[in-house]
Each structure stands twice: as C-alpha cells, then as structure tokens.
Amino acid sequence: MARDAAGQAETLKDRYGEDFIAFLYRRDLYEVLNRETLALLQPNGNNNFLDHGYWNDKHPFNFPGPFYTGQTDTCGTGVPVAPDNVLFDGYCCEYVFRQPRNYTELIGVMDAAAIEVLDSYACDGNRHWTWQTCREWWRDRDELIHYLLHDPEYLKANGERGMLYVDYLNSAAKQDLQKYCFFPENDSYPSEDVMRLPEL
C-alpha cells in the first residue's frame, strides 16, 4: 500500500488532526478506515484488505487493541513494513505485538495488512475487547513471556527482535492496557488527568 510513510502520515494528520490516540481509539474505527482512510491514501488501489474480522480465530499473541491478526501466511512480509508493531510466532505467522502509536506506525500496520496473502489482518478490535477480556488476556502474560524467552523456533524466526515483545510486556504494556480498558467502559481514551485506571 503506502511507500512514503512519512508523507502519508502527514496526509492523515491533516485530515484527522494531531491527536492520533483520539483517532485510533473510537468505536467506528473499522468504518472510518474502510470507508474513508484507505481511499484517501490509495484512491485507485485495492482497499478491501481490512474489511473483515477474525475475532473468533485471532492469534492469541495479539496485544489488545483495534488491530489484530487471524491465521496469517508465513511469507514474512509484515515485519519489514511494520517493525515496531509486528512479530512472528514460531511458525512465522504474524501478530500485532504493539498497537500503532502514531500515524506513521498506522501506515506500517496497514501496509502489513495490504501485502498479507491470506488477508488475515483485522481492525475491528475496538468492537470486541472489553475490560474483562483484556484482564483475561493479561492473566496469561507470564505464560506468553515464558514462550517468548524460551521457544527456539520463535527465537529463530525473530532473531534479536524477539525481545521487543518481552521488553514491552515488562514495561509500558501494563499501563497501555489499563488505558485501553478505560476505553470500552467510557467510550473514550483516558486523558492525562484521569486519576484511576482500570485494574488488571
């Protein structure tokens, strides 16, 4: 899809404003991306690669948020275009280990979705995640970290990048997830002055 990520990120910033978080964490993100954003970025292209959901078949390693994968191919195309957000499991299937943090990363994740042969990326997570399901996912964190640290095929597939998810889960991930849990309960992402975030 996009090749000039910085330029296209500016296009999105001009259209949707500086507040990327407000853009990403909205109930209608699926509709906005599929009906407007993709056409804005690629007016004459094939823009039907995010118009499906795989909620019941999502890869368990996906970090909660709007973007996730189902059963992807093993071609290894997603990581090069979305290195800050996508990793492989031990079979080289892709998953979103960190949600986009800015428009540039959003472009990368959408690029990963565009070139994935099985069309296995989805952007309807905001319709499905709840505080309870996020808490259930977080309870399996230690098991996930053990896999990421010790599975030889995972380590081989990701090389040095394999520690990115471990480092994230041991640092900013908890607060990111707590903030995301605020979203389904309040239909908004928490502002800086919110004193108490949902417990995990």
Descriptive notes:
The chain has 200 residues and is mainly alpha-helical. The chain has a domain at 5-129. The protein is built from ten helices and four strands; from the N terminus they run H-H-H-E-H-E-E-H-E-H-H-H-H-H. The protein has helices at 5-16, 20-24, 29-41, 78-81, 103-115, 131-139, 141-150, 152-158, 163-169, 173-186; strands at residues 68-69, 86-88, 94-96, 121-122. Strand 2 and strand 3 form a beta hairpin. Helix 7 (141-150) runs antiparallel to helix 9 (163-169). It is globular and about 45 Å long. The mean pLDDT is 93.
Oligomer: single chain
Structural class: mainly alpha
Shape: globular
- Within the largest sheet, what's the order of strands? 1-4
Give the ordered list of helices and strands.
HHHEHEEHEHHHHH
Could you name the ranges where pLDDT drops below 50 across 5 or more consecutive residues? none
Distance between the termini: 37 Å
How much of the residues is beta strand, in percent?
A: 5-15%
Work out the helicity level: 40-55%
Gyration radius, in Å = 16 Å
Number of discrete helical segments = 10
Question: Would you count the extended β strands for me?
Answer: 4
Largest sheet: 2 strands, antiparallel
Mean pLDDT, all residues: 93
